[in-house]
Amino acid sequence: MELGASKWVSTVTLAFLSVLLTVTLWKLESNQAQFSFPGDITNMILGKLEGWSLGEDGNKRGLKALGPNITSCHPSYGRKDLLVHCCPPGFQTPVPFVDFQFPDPQSPLRVRRPAHVVDGDYIAKYNKALSIMKSLPHDDPRSFSRQANLHCLFCTGAYDQQSHNAPLSIHRTWLFFPWHRMMIYFHERIIGSLIGDETFALPYWAWDIPEGMVIPDMYTNKSSSFFHTERDASHRPPKIADLNYVSDTNLSREDQLDINLSFMYNQMVSGARKTELFMGCRYKAGTEGYCNGPGTIELAPHNALHTWVGSSLNPGREDMGKFYSAARDPIFYAHHSNIDRLWEVWREANKHELDITDQDWLESFFFFYDENLRLVRVKVADVLDTIKLGYSYEQVHRPWLNKRPKAFFSTKTSSPNVEKEGEREQTTNVKHPLKGDAYVKFDVYVNLIDESKISPKFREFAGTFAHIPGGAATIDLKLGVSELLEDLEADQDETIWVTLLPRTPSCSNVTIGGVRMEYIE
């Protein structure tokens, strides 16, 4: 589509704010033991540390890769009103670490299966391992409490960046997928080692297919290690998960399944046709490198399901409903196994043509303890091949691929497909300072002409914003709308309507800083 000299003028409707939209053009373009040093020493040997972290020519090449200073841990806020202490015991003391090495390629491949199909023997084995992990003392980094605190450490800003005083946080950026992959990779291997099973693989909660859209039975057995009290009791089976959750509805099972599948199509296909739209914004070292722009899947179903699972009796729907406490619930690991699987599905669907090649991303690194109690430094570049990492996913069907929504007023139809090289993507960009500490949710529609057709089932749905409070207060929301405009036969129009529909009372605390149409090469 050619924009020419014409301008896009869009009217935004929101219960509490109207803004004028403008148009812009934007192109995307050794196993040797080492030490991580504390406080003042870090500043004095900054160049040396950066050489170790980024490679010998890291500084010369001007890389802005991210990594934590694991001796700069400090209390952080789990909620606006709650200061939490996630730091590991003795973090001030330098700890020797080794660089990541791939597991022996001759080792058996660990195959992650859907949680709703695993058998009794598997459940018993996993339950035993989890019981052992929960019995380990807190000073053991393999213990369940320390594993859970990893998410608190990296997701609430408890660590500073290694070469800067700026806090490090992995949510709402392009580090979201690789960091969580690292976390569950090491967690899985620790679980297996506790029962002497090198084939053990975590299950994944396949909430993107109808058979998996309830909490798996293994997590509802009150006598097992998988059961967790801090969940919403009303969402136990047979309740169907709401992948775009705000509050409970009276939808029938069939309607909820249908909406979920249409929503998945938007988040995985039509709204995720460019790298940043799916992966999140480009986060780099230093305060000037900070960004806050989540990708489609992180917004929802990721955030939405965290909130859906968490207990309505707790102020932040803890445990799953807040970053600092989410990993205390064993279902967290099955949830993120599915997130990890969907990253692979997206990469493969796009034939790896949208994979990130930016060296700052590839060289970013984190630290995790492995099953042998060694502290390991692992880079993003190390975790991009699941087969080399020694695991794979049992394949399931993808019914959402065939759920391309229909426009309410149009009979135009076409088959879902992966974007061709060189195609441009229009995006809606929303900036909004956030106040308060409540879950914030609103949906975005384009050319909505019938208020009874408010649902991801209809083509007018452009995407959603689902925010679990924590971190910075200003966020960029980018939504891919090229396919949507084509289906609405609006891709040549000079005027479109963009409607932001508040879904939570907390939207009254949101200020829209601006909305614009952009082009991403």
Summarize the structure.
The chain has 521 residues and is an alpha/beta fold.
Describe the structure.
With 521 residues, the chain is an alpha/beta fold. The chain has a single domain, classed as Orthogonal Bundle (di-copper center containing domain from catechol oxidase), CATH 1.10.1280. The chain contains twelve helices and 18 strands. Helix 8 packs antiparallel against helix 9. The chain is globular. 47% of the residues are buried.
From the structure above, extract its key features.
disordered N terminus; single chain; 12 helices; four-stranded mixed beta sheet; di-copper center containing domain from catechol oxidase; 18 strands; alpha/beta; 16% strand
List the helices and strands and how they pair.
Elements: E1 9-13, E2 22-23, E3 34-35, H1 39-44, H2 46-54, E4 68-69, E5 76-79, E6 82-84, E7 96-99, E8 110-112, H3 120-135, H4 144-155, E9 160-161, H5 176-194, H6 253-270, H7 275-279, H8 296-309, H9 331-349, H10 359-363, E10 365-369, E11 375-379, H11 386-389, E12 391-393, E13 425-433, E14 440-446, E15 461-467, E16 474-480, H12 482-487, E17 495-502, E18 514-520
Parallel strand pairs: 1-17, 2-18, 7-11, 8-12
Antiparallel strand pairs: 3-7, 4-9, 5-6, 10-11, 13-16, 13-18, 14-15, 14-17
Helix pairs in contact: 5-9, 8-9
